[in-house]
Amino acid sequence: MKPLALYIHVPFCARKCAYCDFASWPGREGEWRRYFDALVTEIRLWSANTDFGLLKERFRVRSAFVGGGTPTLVPAEWIAEALELCRKIAPFDADAEITVEGNPGTLTPEKLRTYRQAGVNRLSLGAQSFDDDLLYTLGRIHTADQTVQAVEMARDAGFSNINLDLMYGLPEQSMDQWLDTLERAVDLGVPHISAYSLILEPGTPLAERVARGELTVPDDEAVIAMQRTASELLSKSDFGRYEISNYARPKSESRHNLTYWYRGDYLGLGCAAHSMLDETRFSNPDSLDEYLAGRRMTDVQRLKRRDAIEETVMLNTRATKGIDLAAWERRFGRPFAPEKSAALERLAGAGYIEMKDDWLRLTGRGLEVHNAVVLELLEIQEAMER
Ligand code: SF4
Questions:
Q1: CB 79 within 8 A of CB 44
Q2: Which of 12, 155, 161, 244 is least surrounded by CB atoms within 10 angstroms?
């Protein structure tokens, strides 16, 4: 039985954040139940689908992630119902990691209790910052105090496995503000922190304000300094960095995330959800209306060898463990690089990569310029494929 990661997308939010271009919509409350009915239908169809063989005979669910959007906005019973039905797609491991993503300000003790009863054992909270002015600029619906209350509420409900999402490189954000946010997150005693650099997506209100000169974002050097600060501060607090943006206390790494970076099989349910089963990628439409109209499994694409090589390099190198060179050779039928590779030696000599015990990993310095290192590693692959 192969391990499977399930993803359920809940595309509703209380308000659209100023930087967000995800498939999520504020309002549309009138469509919430219709959406969950469509989701239930999709789950039922997957329980009997044989496009990849009957999934329940081939896979076991190692992790499930209910993301969004703001899943904690909708009635918790609906999430519980969807998760329960998912057990018909494939059996869940007894210790499956089951995460619900949510926003401070939308949690209640009752909702948390319902999640627990549904087997949810991990919460991922979009804290983003502990500075109320920055939260306001981002258009978040909550304050820093509400994040603290959400963590306390979650603990009272029996959750110990809690992630906080944080963002840096925010408009007008100083290093002191970032340090304060990191320290407050650590002081809350959560075992997992994701620290993402803000990406200004074209067309979002925040990007437009920056383009008009109303707000200034920190320059590249300042952003790298913030990333370094996160890595240093968190490692002093017993957090291991296991991916470019993810830090965990021992044994608290997210299984679900690791599935993506190590290219395991995953099935996405709901609008805009992506899947990869047996090296075949497909996705549901991004548009809520198209999803509600019953359109599914668009862009079905069987990965070619070159795509698989490229993805493996791009994704494995995001994880700090890096590329398992023995597994690479088994998968692609050839070594990662020639025995004496001048390109690898140059990257290692410059301190961007390390090779040890049959693993190739990017160093902290290499992760700062991840894209550039990946391009060089892909050039090696091009030559090896010729
Ligand atoms: S809560 Fe998340 S998904 Fe919703 S608008 Fe904000 S950033 Fe986007």
A1: no
A2: 155
Domains of the chain: residue spans and CATH: 2-260 (3.20.20.70), 305-386 (1.10.10.920)
Q: Whose CA is nearest to atom 6 of ligand 1?
A: 17
Cα separation, 61 vs 51, in Å, equals 18
Q: For residue range 146-190, what is the model confidence (pLDDT) as tens digits?
A: 999 999 999 999 999 999 999 999 999 999 999 999 999 999 999
The pocket around ligand 1, CB under 6 angstroms, is made up of 13, 16-17, 20, 22, 24, 68-70, 103, 126
Q: Of all helices (H) and strands (E), which one includes residue 85?
A: helix 76-86
CA distance 71 to 125: 11
**Dist CA 125 CA 67 (whole Å):** 10
- 281 strand-pairing partners: 276, 301
Give the bridge partners for 98, in sequence order.
64
CA of 199 to the centre of ligand 1 (A): 14
What's this model's pTM, rounded to 2 decimal places?
Answer: 0.96
Q: How many angstroms separate the alpha carbon of residue 35 from the centre of ligand 1?
A: 18
pLDDT tens digits, one per residue of 274-301: 999 999 999 999 999 999 999 998 889 9
Give counts: helices (H), strands (E), the chain: 16, 17
